[in-house]
Design brief:
CATH superfamily of the largest domain: Phosphoglycerate kinase, N-terminal domain
Strand content: 15-25%
CATH class of the largest domain: Alpha Beta
Helix content: 25-40%
Number of domains: 2
CATH architecture of the largest domain: 3-Layer(aba) Sandwich
CATH topology of the largest domain: Rossmann fold
Structural class: alpha/beta
Radius of gyration: 23 Å
Length: 398
């Protein structure tokens, strides 16, 4: 990674100073409590590393999609309560505003070692990257740390704008880890390098396929997007989700990909998602006209697992089927378990956020992966080769 991190800053630059840290605390809330604290825990190494160096930590985050004004259901107050529990030796101070005199006063109080300010998206200028707001946010700290990889693909005032007015502007430890793992997979992977792509739509993954195809040894395709390839092969797809405007593109990718592209050889089908008891496995050229594919079939799941087992680097983005509904979770489970086994054999395994990360969490296999990305959209854009504004704004290594 060619960006400076908190580890590149000298003691003189940080001790006794205020670090304005953009984190990604966009977590699910239920009944006024945090339902899943994964993203909060992911930021703890950076928070603790700064506290250990005598830094006061001022935290910024968004939550949900409020429309540029306060909405109580999107308040970060429950997040502050959970963070307080996760930092037993600290008292987390929650401030009900962000770019106000009250917020600035709270950041200057030497007794406040950890401060969480209210949702940045309660501010009208956040998502438009308003310059006045960015300058105002810069008043809240003495240097800037971006540890919110999940928001790095957005050029917002708290992710990109503020870095222009508050220096040094460096990456946190989570951001560094994300960029190191994903960057290495793209730039210098150990071979065999296998990419597993799933999910509903080929259109959402087309740029990733373009980026990865020249670099991988195998590109495994699952999920409903496989049906668009089936259609391109002239196969019956029944009521399956097919992107008819992408069939020609799929044909071109099939011709270009050759043996590298690995498609399912069978499918688990049913008349509808509401009839899982009618699920059956059929060869890919025998999908009934009145049924839809909701998962890859058992032969495909076994073949995908076999390919993964021989890999040194595996990148996975997108489930193999509708994993939230049994029995259509079997393909996704097979891939997740194969990645876990490959990790145990010293392969580097990277799960690219979003639904894949949710599936791995549901299966209790997070700790069995080399890296589970905290950013669905951000990891996809990074893998597409796009510049992430929140990363580009940080200081380069000298």
């Amino acid at each position: 990674m060619n960006k400076q991190t908190i580890n590149d800053l000298s003691d003189a630059q940080v001790r006794g100073k205020r670090a304005l840290v953009r984190v990604d605390f966009n977590v699910p809330l239920e009944h006024g409590r945090v339902a899943d604290d994964t993203r909060i825990r992911a930021a703890l190494p950076t928070i603790r590393a700064l506290l250990d160096r005598g830094v006061r930590v001022i935290l910024l985050s968004h939550l949900g999609r409020p429309k540029g004004k306060p909405e109580p259901k999107y308040s970060l107050e429950p997040v502050a309560a959970r963070l307080d529990e996760l930092l037993p030796n600290e008292h987390v101070v929650f401030v009900e505003s962000t770019d106000t005199d009250e917020a600035i006063k709270a950041t200057h109080d030497p007794a406040n070692r950890v401060v969480l300010l209210e949702n940045t998206r309660f501010l009208g200028g956040e998502e438009t990257n308003d310059e006045r707001l960015a300058r105002g946010l810069a008043e809240l700290g003495d240097f800037y740390v971006n540890d919110a990889f999940g928001s790095a693909h957005r050029a917002h005032a708290s992710t990109e704008g503020v870095a222009r007015y508050l220096q040094p502007a460096v990456a946190g430890l989570l951001m560094q880890k994300e960029l190191d793992y994903l960057g290495r997979a793209l730039e210098n992977p150990h071979h065999p390098f296998v990419a597993v792509l799933g999910g509903a739509k080929i259109s959402g993954k087309i740029d990733v396929i373009e980026q990865l195809l020249p670099k991988v040894d195998h590109l495994v395709i699952g999920g409903a997007m496989a049906c668009t390839f089936f259609k391109a092969m002239g196969l019956e797809t029944g009521k399956s989700l097919v992107e008819s405007d992408r069939v020609d593109m799929a044909k071109e990718l099939l011709a270009r990909g050759g043996d590298k592209l690995v498609l399912p050889t069978d499918a688990t089908v049913a008349p509808s998602l509401d009839a899982p008891q009618s699920a059956q496995a059929v060869p890919r050229d025998a999908i009934p006209a009145d049924q839809a594919m909701f998962d890859v079939g058992p032969k495909s799941a076994a073949e995908f697992a076999r390919i993964i087992s021989g890999a040194k680097t595996v990148l996975w983005n997108g489930p193999m089927g509708v994993f939230e509904t049994k029995p259509f979770d079997a393909g996704t489970r097979a891939v997740a378990e194969a990645l876990a086994a490959a990790t145990g054999k010293d392969a580097t395994t990277i799960v690219g956020g979003g639904d894949s990360a949710a599936a791995v969490a549901d299966l209790g296999l997070e700790d069995k992966m080399s890296h589970v990305s905290t950013g669905g959209g951000a990891s996809l854009e990074f893998l597409e080769g796009k510049v992430l504004p929140g990363v580009a704004a940080l200081d380069d290594k000298r």
